[in-house]
Write a structure and sequence with these properties.
The protein is mainly α and 212 residues long. The protein has one domain. 67% of the residues lie in helices and 0% in strands. Helix 5 runs antiparallel to helix 6 and helix 6 runs antiparallel to helix 7. The relative contact order is 0.17.
Length: 212
C-alpha cells in the first residue's frame, strides 16, 4: 500500500512539474467549475465555510489541543506520541513541496509569498488531522472505528471539492495532497513506525497509568 501511494504521489507530482496530462485535466476541470465569479450561491457559500474551517493552522492547533487534552485526561502520553509526528511531518512536507514546486493557482499564475499551489495544504491537513482524530477515537471506541474513518474520508473529500469548486486549487493539487496525506498516515500508523500500536491498548482496560 505504501508503495502504491508513493508511486501515485510521484506520478502526479512529476506530471505537475513537467506540465503533463494532469495539467490538461486541471484546465478542463477549471472550465467545468464556477469559481468565485459565479456569485454567492448556496454551494459557493457552503464551500467558503468549509475552506475557512479547514484552514491548516486552525486544524493543526485543534488536533494538537485535542491530543494534549486526551493525554492529560488519560494520564498517558500515547495520544501526543501519535499526533505530534503526524502534524510535524505534515507541515514539513507540505511547506517543502510548495517551496520547491513553482506553481501558481487557478485564480492567479503568480506565486504568493514564495509558496506555490502544489500540494494543497488545506487538503493534506484535512486528511492527516481527521485521520489522527479518527485513530484516537478508534482506540477509545473500537466499535466506532469504521464510522470515525468514514467521516475522516468524507471530510477530506468535501474540503478538496470545495477548493476545486472555488478555484482555490487545481484538481491535481488536491489529488497529490491526498496521496501525500494517505502516505504519511500509512507510514506513521501502519508501517514502519506503527505509532498506532502505541495506543492500541484501550485506556479504559485497567492497564498501568503513569502517575498512579
Amino acid at each position: 500500500m505504501a508503495l502504491l501511494l508513493a508511486v501515485g504521489l510521484v506520478v502526479v507530482t512529476t506530471s505537475v512539474v513537467v506540465g503533463g496530462p494532469t495539467v490538461r485535466v486541471d484546465d478542463v476541470v477549471k472550465n467545468l467549475t464556477p469559481g468565485q465569479d459565479a456569485g454567492p450561491g448556496a454551494l459557493g457559500l457552503l464551500a467558503l465555510v468549509v475552506v475557512d474551517i479547514a484552514t491548516p493552522a486552525l486544524c493543526v492547533a485543534l488536533v494538537a489541543a485535542f491530543a494534549v487534552a486526551l493525554a492529560l485526561l488519560q494520564r498517558r502520553w500515547a495520544p501526543v506520541l501519535l499526533a505530534a509526528p503526524a502534524l510535524a511531518l505534515l507541515t514539513g512536507t507540505v511547506l517543502l513541496g510548495k517551496a520547491v514546486i513553482p506553481r501558481g493557482g487557478p485564480i492567479s499564475p503568480e506565486i504568493i509569498g514564495g509558496l506555490g499551489s502544489y500540494p494543497s495544504g488545506h487538503t493534506a491537513t484535512a486528511l492527516v488531522c481527521a485521520g489522527v482524530v479518527a485513530e484516537l477515537v478508534s482506540r477509545l471506541h473500537p466499535r466506532r472505528r469504521r464510522l470515525a474513518w468514514s467521516l475522516a474520508v468524507a471530510w477530506t473529500l468535501v474540503v478538496a471539492a470545495s477548493l476545486v469548486w472555488l478555484h482555490f486549487h487545481w484538481l491535481s493539487d488536491v489529488v497529490g495532497s491526498m496521496f501525500l496525506g494517505s502516505l504519511l498516515l500509512w507510514l506513521l500508523l501502519r508501517w514502519p513506525l506503527r505509532l498506532g500500536a502505541r495506543v492500541a491498548q484501550p485506556w479504559r482496560d485497567g492497564g498501568p497509568i503513569p502517575g498512579r
